[in-house]
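Anyone able to model this chain together with S-adenosyl-L-homocysteine?
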Amino acid sequence: MSIHGPERLDHFMARANAAYYARKDPFADFMTSPEISQVFGELLGGWSAVMWGAMGRPASVMLVECGPGRGSLMADALRMIGQVAPDFRAALAVHLVETSPRLRAAQMQKIPDAVWHDRVEDLPDGPMILLANEFLDALPIRQFVRRGAGWNERFVHEGALQEISSTETLNREAGEGEVIEICPAAEEFTAWLAEHLKKQAGAALIVDYGPARSAPGESLQALRKGAPVDPLQDPGEADLTAHVDFQALVEAARTHGILAYGPRPQGRFLTDLGLFPRTHQLARRVEEPKQAMALLDSASRLAEPTRMGELFKGVAMCSPFVSQIPPGFEG
Ligand code: SAH
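re: yes, here you go
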């Protein structure tokens, strides 16, 4: 896969990831929360059930997931919803937003009655609860370098970064030579979500990793078999991701007129939702002490600040007329 001349970084990243997700099994390269513990999806299912109540229990509601990967989160959520909120289970229709045909096939095994879409813009109107874990980090970013009073933009040329002078005006602080990142696709996603949530009752829960506050710094990374590799080499062979700018996300939501909560560190958020009691309940049921230990360790991996508990964060967004503070965001 090669193109002639310098290619803007976001275009390079979009092309690399489309090839990557279409051909590779991402889960050979990295591990996500729903793959670490079934409790992650179960808690998000419980969260969705509470928000359905806060929305006034609409008789028909979409349960949407963006970038569902193997479908584990949704399968775990649906199982929990069936147990604790059968009325919600009966009211919901599952919609999955996924571009990769390969991952769609995996999702179909677990959630055969879902409806698939390429883009959120293709979702029908109606009340909605939307979940997204490690979706925004896969969306393409642009990088700008402060040079004097202006900015250079980074392009990719023959496997290396190249700076090209830019006329963009960016409302961001950075010292000489410092890099800032923006994610236009995340901005478009938030704008779409806000339009939807202003028209119809709904709530969204977005979990991903990145800093709570916008700051200069570059975060583009590539993982292959769990180890970092050069993101500019061999496009399509590794998963390219970047930190999510949670401050920008929350500010965009508010600017567009919807309610936004967080970012809340994943450890605190999941603990509030009941990560440990639920994990202990499961651990008591298994035969092998080893299995019980593994369950407890998976919970600690999700929640401990030095593991995934602090870098990963949750943000909730709600319709302006859905005023209940979402579970996990009261603290
Ligand atoms: N949420 C899953 C998978 C995370 S990997 C988990 O937590 O395990 C990122 C997911 O987003 C994959 O399913 C990938 O195919 C999907 N994806 C990446 N870019 C996308 C895009 N532009 N539109 C829709 N889905 C996308």
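Residues 17, 21, 26, 32, 34-35, 67-69, 73, 97-100, 103, 133-135, 138-139 surround S-adenosyl-L-homocysteine (CB under 6 Å).
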